[in-house]
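As a point of orientation, let us examine one representative protein, giving the amino acid sequence and backbone structure tokens.
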Amino acid sequence: MAKQPRSPRSPAGWRTVPIRSANRRPDAAEGPIAEASDEAPSRARPPLPPLVDRWSFPLFALVASVYALRATHGFVYDDFPLIRFEARPRTLGAILDAAAQTHWNHLPYYRPLSRVLLAAEHFAFGDEPTPYHLCNAALAGLVAVLARALFTHPDLRVGPGLAVVAGLLVALHPVASEGVYAASVGPETLACFAAVLGAVAAWTRPGARSYAAALGLLAAALLLKEQAVALPLLFVWSDLCDVSYAAPGRSPARWLKRYVPVALALLGWFALRSTMLTTADPLRAVLFDDPAGPWLSLLYTLQAIVTPTWHLLYEPPVEGWLSLPRLVVCAVFVAVLGALCRRNWSDLRGPLIYWAGWFVFTVLPTANLFKQETRFAERYVLLSLPALVGLLGALGSTTPGTARRPRLVLAAAIALTAIAAVVSVHRGRYYATNHAFLEEWRAHDPMPYHALAALGEEAHFASRWPEAERYYRAAIAVDPRAAAFVYEPLGLTLEAQGRTAEAIEMYRTALRYRPQSGAARAHLQALAPETAAVVVEGAATWRQQLQADPNNAMALVNLGVQLTNEGQLDEAIRSYRDALRRDTAWSATQADHTLMRSKAHYNLGRVLAQQNHGPEAIAEYRAALVEDPNYAYAHTNLALLLEGIGSNAEAIVHLQAALRIQPTLAPARTALDRLQTP
């Protein structure tokens, strides 16, 4: 018997609707369709549901209520420099001044809208953390509403019931919780995610208002977080896949008209960012140094979404997240998903291609193509989450079966979302206090020197000297080189306990690892002036090392230090710049490379400042802080130069950062008192 052709299936739970032209009102009278030469050719398409309807408020309220369970938590980690240690804005002008600030630790980020939103919250709430957490819970509710609005697009083939559950899953998934529980992260990560979802939902709808809304949300997303650079790619992909109801088709003129404003917005953002970030090398390609980076990023994204962990894995190294059991589960998931998509290819072809592109494009900005703050973090995964959720929603809506099948699929989706919500709520307990957060980070990080150093800093500021010493020594035990920044505060801790001989040894060790450390040298000169001068070797020693290894960039930096001390400033500049040029050829650990670059930029800034090249010196100090955000003297020297050109607000930020890192730094304290005196 001849095989009968298979009839097309409608997504489960969808009501059959009459097909109407995309360029006509749904209630227009039937009749001939007029030709319009200035519009893209239309095809018969179902009408789009409204972005906001009767389901929106219950969805918003449910997600916000789940996250509000943790609203009584305190501040953790980055909340302190971004909120707690910042001066509270008192006027509207002070709030708007935040737009001129770069990232607090001077990584190559410029997020003015995020800073303004956080300043507005600080103005309204002060140092009371609960309102910040409630605002983040509300942002999570908005994410759920916007995700559901995106999933209801007819071409994505997610049924109405599953679209609601899919919106819940996006907002309540454990990778989303990292963008909610820290008080300072909502106006940055969550707000950007909401702007991206809203922009794509608006872009795919017809009409001038939708187009204008998409452009406005694009601008907002770019000013919130750099990951939004993927948004123009999502616009193009939506048009190429014909998901956009106003797609320009094959007309170059319509493509040009549609994308000139997008290109202008993107170029304007790049120009603004370049103006604000005066770092000499804000984007450093690392793809050739680590070609496996992008593939690991894809794998990390998939693993974080498919197999989220019960415990918090904050900014894990590869060995901290790469797990054979989780990889096996991911492989099985991909195999089953692939088989189901192949079986339902005729229904899923469009959604599968669209979501696959979405997944790749949203991974790219954090795929370790360029140097970034940390290689892997769940906050990077958030933009990719709708791709897998949307594909699962389409698959569940198109799977054939009995009349009971849609209800079973919906029940399974609700159960999966409930499990995800339980994990997210459980993870919230680790954000209750800063100490709980740092201890959880430490417990599940195979190289926890950052967490241990932060625990030591917490105890240090509270004058709990034995506890601070214990954490600092534990950080050094993990990796003496990578944790070289700990020797100075450990020396301060020992000195505070009256253990002068041990403090002297810590300062000497700090200078061996970081010869340019002015703080360690100052403390060593105060305690043992007769030994401070011999810590750094003479120029002849460094030249001998360079004869044996011409690419030894650290020897070039140390040679530059000696030349600076001898007053040979032009030769010192050449030595520092030669060190930076030889960075890629130098065979050393990543920690040594980072240490070398920070010292080269810092000392180059010092020499340029001595030669009255202020703008160049400012750029070098900023570059040093990109490499080492905890470089207290770089913060201080940069602040003094900024004060000299009248940028007192930014100078105060740097001086406050310097004193958080090194509370006893006298030049920073003196300068801060001078600037804050009415």
Remarks:
- The chain has three domains: 56-431, 447-532, 629-678.
- The longest strand covers residues 20-21.
- Residues 629-678 form a domain with the Serine Threonine Protein Phosphatase 5, Tetratricopeptide repeat fold (CATH 1.25.40.10).
